[in-house]
Amino acid sequence: MDKLPGFRPLSLFPIFFFLLLTTCQSLQPRNSTLLSIPKAQILLSGITKGKVTVVKTFNGPSGLTGILIKENSTHLAIVYATADAKTLIAGTLFDKNGINLTKQSADAFLKEETNSAPKKTQFQEDEADQIKVSPFKMDLLEKETSFLSQGQGSKVLWIFFDPNCIWCHRLFLMIHQHPIPETIEIRWIPVGFLKSGSIGKASAILKNGFAELSKDEINFDTENEEGGAPIISSPKFRSMVQKNNRILKLLGNGGLETPTLIYRKKGINYLFPGFPDKGEWAGIIGALSP
């Protein structure tokens, strides 16, 4: 596999698969076969035990999905997956003319990284303009909510979400486009109020854990704004979701809005209602404190 600036061969796979391509298809969009970032992340996490993060997916040759991944938060590599998300190919791909397609893709990403650095909006730095969460409400949040934990860091970010909330879906995708710092723990709090099936889907997510949340987002129907989690009828988990609803309403001073983020900065807890843009998200993550 060619070594490129910023790239290195993927070291986590003991066995490399080499694919002989007999045809070379142009890199045109093939939305029917392109794997989403969350779906690719599930495949990679299962194989590498969570040691790599999917940065981006792109249309590869012959119906494959190319996956740009990051190892140890620093090293980049490219692998490929089949359309059914069941087979991963690690190695250098060549077309029938001997062109190194893996190097071609890597060069394109390096150029993109150099020429189009992401623009960030100014995050609100004035604490007076931000919504503070009282110690009483924070204590209620920490002790009474039912949530799913992602990560084990000392800096905690709370996110209220409805399984049928399209902005929550977009937030989930945005978060998982880049590695979550090891110092951070995200606590996903399911609520259910947007649609009649929301509470049943939130119950399923609480019952089955983060894997169910991932499935809800991977199978999200953006046209109809419907999450992909199943609807279950469980008095136990329905009660837990309803309590989460009440706590969100209390935090929002009587209103319900998803997503809603709660974070701690310089010893003070703040509430961010709605969907943060990339700059605001970077500001929240950068400001988090234990």
UniProtKB/TrEMBL annotation:
Gene Ontology cellular component annotations, sorted alphabetically: periplasmic space
Record InterPro entries: DiS-bond_isomerase_DsbC/G_N_sf, Thiol:disulfide_interchange, Thioredoxin-like_sf
Protein name (record): Putative thiol:disulfide interchange protein DsbG
Organism this protein belongs to: Leptospirillum ferrooxidans (strain C2-3)
